[in-house]
Amino acid sequence: MEQQGKQGVIVSKVLPNQDPSLLVEAFVVTATSGVQGAAIGAIMGTITPDISSSMPTPPQAALNPQAMASLKQAQALAGGPLIQARNFAVMTGTNAGIACVMKRLRGKEDVQSSMVAAFGSGAMFSLVSGMGGSNNATNAITSGLFFALVQGGLFKLGEKFSQPPTEDLHYARTRSMLSNLGLQNYEKNFKKGLLTDHTLPLLTDSALRDVRIPPGPRLLILDHIQRDPELREKTGKL
Tens of pLDDT along 141-199? Predict the structure, then answer.
C-alpha cells in the first residue's frame, strides 16, 4: 500500500492537475496507431522484395564502421514484412501517443506539438531499426531532429493550403451588390480599378466604363445605387 501511494505521488508530480484518463487515452491511441502502422508496414514489406537477407556482408565491412552503418541502414529500410511492421508500428504509435499527450497538456494542436511528436517518433525508429551505426544516442537525436524538421515543414504547408481565403472587407458591400444583380463576375473589375465600397456613392458611367464593364451591367449597377436608400443618402450629401 505504501509503495502504491508513492507511485501515485510521483504520477501527480509528473502530470499535475491532469485527469488520470490521459494515461489511458494515450495508451489506447498509441496501441491503436501502432497496430495500424504495423499493418501498413507488413503490407509494404510484402509487396517490396526483402533484399536485406540477400545482402552479402563484405569482409572489410567488419573493419569499417561507416560500411557497417550503411549496411545496417539498408537492412532497416529493406527488411521483410515483420521488420517493416515493427518499424512502422513504432513510428506511428510513438507519434500518435506523444501528440495525444501534448494536445491534452497544452490544450491545442500546433506545429510545436507536432514536431515534438515527430522527434520522438524518429528517435524511436532509429533505436529499434538500428539505423546509422553504433552510436545509438547520437543517431536517435539526429533521426529525431530530421523527422521533426520534416513534420514541421509539412504542418506549415498543410496550414497554408487548408486556410480558407480571407475575404477583402473593402469590397464586402460591392460583392453583395454584384451578387444580388447576378454580376459577380465583374468583382475583379472593381478590384482592378480600386473601386471599393467607399466609392459606390461616387460611381459614374465613365468610371465603370474605365474598368471595362459593358453597358448593360453598368446600367444595372447605377440603377441599384440610385435605388439604395443608404447609398442615395450618401450621394446627396456629396
Answer: 988 899 999 999 988 888 777 765 666 788 889 999 999 999 999 999 999 999 999 99
Q: 3-state DSSP: the chain helix, strand, coil percent, rounded to 5? A: 75, 0, 25
Compute the distance between CA of residue 168 and CA of residue 196 in angstroms, rounded to an integer: 10
What SS3 class is residue 116?
helix
Grid cell 527488411 is found at 79
Residue 199 — φ and ψ, nearest 5°?
-95, -5
Rounded to whole angstroms, the Cα distance separating 27 from 95 reads 12
For the chain, the C-alpha Rg in angstroms (whole number) is 31
pTM over 0.90: no
Decide: 103 and 65 in contact? Cβ < 8 Å: no
Q: Which amino acid is at 171?
A: Y
Cα 194 from Cα 180, distance rounded (Å)? 20
Distance between CA atoms of 219 and 216, rounded to whole angstroms? Answer: 5
As given in the structure block, the three cell numbers for residue 115 are 514536431
